[in-house]
Amino acid sequence: MSDEKQEMVDRVYAELEKVIDPELGVDIVNLGLVYKVDLDDDQNVFIEMTLTSMGCPLAGTIVSEIKNALKELQEIGEIGEVDVEIVWSPPWDKKMMSRYAKIALGVADN
């Protein structure tokens, strides 16, 4: 991946850290819910992520929040379309959380 592309992926991740899981109160990046961020040649963003549970009623809300978080980058022409795909494999596990998220939620680090 080129340095410019990696820099934009890093900026997208930084914006995604502003998206807070409404149930847990921690951002989706530190929760380990974002599995992959990719950019195509037209700067369209593809996000592969999961949710903490399959029956999560807030899936639509979280996807909307992601698109809102990235709207500014779209408006200034840094990125194109945003596509969010929710996947269930691999299944999310507490081990995927960052140290910050574990501390914030009081989860033992096993």
SSE layout and pairings?
Elements: H1 3-16, E1 34-39, E2 45-49, H2 59-75, E3 82-86, H3 99-105
Parallel strand pairs: 2-3
Antiparallel strand pairs: 1-2
Key structural traits:
110 residues, alpha+beta, globular, three-stranded mixed sheet, GMP Synthetase, Chain A, domain 3, 3 strands
Structure explained in plain terms:
- The structure is a single chain.
- The protein is α+β, with helices and mostly antiparallel strands.
- The chain has one domain: 2-Layer Sandwich (GMP Synthetase, Chain A, domain 3), CATH 3.30.300.130.
- Helix content is 35%, strand content 15%.
- It has 3 helices and 3 strands.
- The chain has helices at residues 3-16, 59-75, 99-105, and strands at residues 34-39, 45-49, 82-86.
- β1 and β2 (45-49) form a beta hairpin.
Order of helices and strands: HEEHEH
Mean pLDDT reading: 94
**Shape annotation:** globular
Number of helices: 3
Number of distinct beta strands: 3
Overall helicity: 25-40%
**Would you tell me the structural class of the helices and strands?**
alpha+beta
> Mind describing the biggest β-sheet?
3 strands, mixed
Whole-number total of structural domains: 1
CATH architecture: 2-Layer Sandwich
Strand content: 5-15%
> Which CATH C-level class is it?
Alpha Beta
At CATH level 3, the topology is: GMP Synthetase, Chain A, domain 3
Terminus-to-terminus distance: 33 Å
Which stretches are poorly predicted, pLDDT < 50 over at least 5 residues?
none
CATH superfamily grouping: Fe-S cluster assembly (FSCA)
Spatial strand sequence of the major β-sheet: 1-2-3
What Rg do the Cα atoms give?
Answer: 14 Å
